[in-house]
Structures are given as structure tokens and as C-alpha cells.
Amino acid sequence: xxxxxxxxxxxxxxxxxxxxxxxxxxxxxxxxxxxxxxxxxxxxxxxxxxxxxxxxxxxxxxxxxxxxxxxxxxxxxxxxxxxxxxxxxxxxxxxxxxxxxxxxxxxxxxxxxxxxxxxxxxxxxxxxxxxxxxxxxxxxxxxxxxxxxxxxxxxxxxxxxxxxxxxxxxxxxxxxxxxxxxxxxxxxxxxxxxxxxxxxxxxxxxxxxxxxxxxxxxxxxxxxxxxxxxxxxxxxxxxxxxxxxxxxxxxxxxxxxxxxxxxxxxxxxxxxxxxxxxxxxxxxxxxxxxxxxxxxxxxxxxxxxxxxxxxxxxxxxxxxxxxxxxxxxxxxxxxxxxxxxxxxxxxxxxxxxxxxxxxxxxxxxxxxxxxxxxxxxxxxxxxxxxxxxxxxxxxxxxxxxxxxxxxxxxxxxxxxxxxxxxxxxxxxxxxxxxxxxxxxxxxxxxxxxxxxxxxxxxxxx
Length: 461
Prior knowledge:
With 461 residues, the protein is α/β, with parallel strands linked by helices. Helices cover 33% and strands 14% of the residues.
């Protein structure tokens, strides 16, 4: 086999069980594709260990023998744990994350680390440590972030599935930019331990996937309570087995491409509205016209999110300032100068306002349908604090559509729904807490009726 597997992860497992391909053949094809790729999606490879695992892979396990990318912010014992920062470029992980232990026990074969934005602080695919990661559909465009390398690797045909994390859209934003399914579960769905950092209570874990069933199998393997994450949710069995069984008919939905606050490109808004209306017809949703206007989180929220990073850099900051991404360094400087009890109080006031606003909408509907990103992928070198004159109006407010679900912990899924300027568009569906299965079934309806490309045109690139 010379080409990497371009189907979903579940189909690769089926093929290995049927003897059509061996785990070592699948791995070698992925390694070759990674070596030849121009996307810069991987920052580290552990090829020898991956080959050892492939030779003894148990394909009877859920992910037995599947080559998997691991987001650079995740931990595999003995691997680099640099968090995409020059500050920690020589640091190694001293333990493996809980969810990753579960994934390994399910037979997955981690091949290396996928690039991310520094400390996951930006929704772009640029860092001083790794440079620029390109979009799988057009390497000159952003892959998004912070799980940009994971999305580029999966959509670019390098590995069938990769891990992701989402503290403000970091699964959904790059998934939408790269034409993948991006599921942010209800807060706590997958445990974040050991050594769980609780604040700011917005981060969830998951994967960058080509198909709905891949996400469901990931949940079957990785989700479920662990005592080292006190906010993790009880285990639910049968995510994959029960796909397509939710009673969707009659659920009430509102289509609000901009959530009442974001600046969304007209063509993207039109594509999302059309896709939302078609989804309603396919599944029997009842479309309701109710006002949606999510409150904007002020600068207080941004500075409060740097508390954990400031703690992690104790003894290194501010001497390490020049090693940091300009935006991270600027944010830390401002935070040190402004953060106090008054600011902390405003943050909680804003969190409460967001909770109340979201709950008020869900008093009337069961689902909120919006765009995932304000625009399609913009130039890869651009950061969140830069506007590109005359195009891509969504650059400055990227994240405005995804952050609300993080603040209040609701599940939200980004579903590929076509393209604008030959670049993917994602439709976000936000549900009530704990309705993750319904969101996966809505995505399944789109996948069945209007299937999306599992990899970018021309992948692997």
C-alpha cells in the first residue's frame, strides 16, 4: 500500500480485520505521507515505537492498529510536552493523559504530535516553535486552531483521526476550516486528568474526525468519569451502536447564522441558512423564529484565561517574553497590569449573563443553528489581531460563534455543508446540555443525505 488510508478510521479497522491491509502497511503509508507533506501538520514523530506497536496490533480492538495524531497540547509519557512554545521546547511529558491511556488500551497507534497554537491561546495555526501549518484544502490558508495540525493531518490524508481540544472553538474552528466533523461535547464528557486544571471551566477534549461514527467510537473509548477530573461526566455506553436512534422529529430549532453578534460573511450565512433549512426538512425539525443575541465577552474574560499560564511560567516570566508569540506576550503583560478582584468579578458576571442568555433561548428551542466560523479560511500567516483589508471579514471576530458554547458548557457540533471560494464552510448546531447523541444524529443525517469529502481534494498534500 503506497497511499495512506483515505477513508474514516472505522473503515480502516474493518479493512484490517478483513485482511485487506495490515496495521504496519497502514502505518508506513501514513509515515510516508507525513514525510512528503507540505502542510507542516506534525511537530514530532515517534516512528520506531509506532512500528513496534503496529507489529503486535490487536485489530479486534475498537481502534486496533489505527495510526492516530496527538495534539501537541496533549501528553504521552516520554514524548515532548512543549505546548507549541519555545519556552518549553525541551520539556518531556512525565505521564500520559487519562483519555490517551484509554485510547491506547483500545488499540490506537499514536504516530506523533500534531502542531497547535502556543498554549492553545489562539485560533490560528502559527507559532514561533513550529512556524505555519497550512490548510488541507489550500496550504496558503489557515488550518485554524488551536487543533490546526490535527485537522490538517486528518483532512490532508496523513492519518485517519487525531485528538483535539476545545476551550473556545479549538475543535470546531479548524474542523470547519478543513472540511471535517468537529464535535465539542457537553463539558466534562471526556476527562481531562490527571493533574486537571479546572479554571477557566471551558475546555473539553475530543477528536478531529472524517465521519460521525469515528467521533462516536472515540466517545465509546475515551468518555466517562475519572476521579482525577471531578467535573467529568458518568460513562455512557453505545455511542456508536446507538447512532441514528435519536427522536429528532419535532425538535424546535432556530437558525441564526451570526448568533446576533458576530460579523458573518454573506455567502457563509446563506450557505448555513440553506443547510439548516434542508436539515430541518430531512429530520422533521420545527424551525422557530426567536431572537438570538449572545452577549460579547469583554477583555476581562481574555485576561482571566491567562491565570493558569501565568502560574505555569512562574520563574520564567517576564524573561521569556521574547520567546513567546507576540499575542501571548502582550496578553500576559496586560493581564499583569489589570487583573484584580474587580476584573475577576466582572468575569463571573459575564459568565452568568452568558448562562442566562443561552438558557433563555433554550426556553423556546432545542437547537441553535449558526455558522461555525464567520468566514472561510483566511491567509495562513494572519493572526487573530489582524484584519486583511478588503476580504475575510471574519478574521477579527473568529471565535465569536464558538465561544458561547464553551462558556456555558453546551454541546456543539460543526458539520461540513459545502464551500465558498472552494474552501469549506461549517454549520454549527448547539444543543441543550447532555444532548450530545442528538447532535451526532443530526450530523449523521447530513452525512447520509449530503456526504462531505472525507479528505481535501488532492490529499494527501
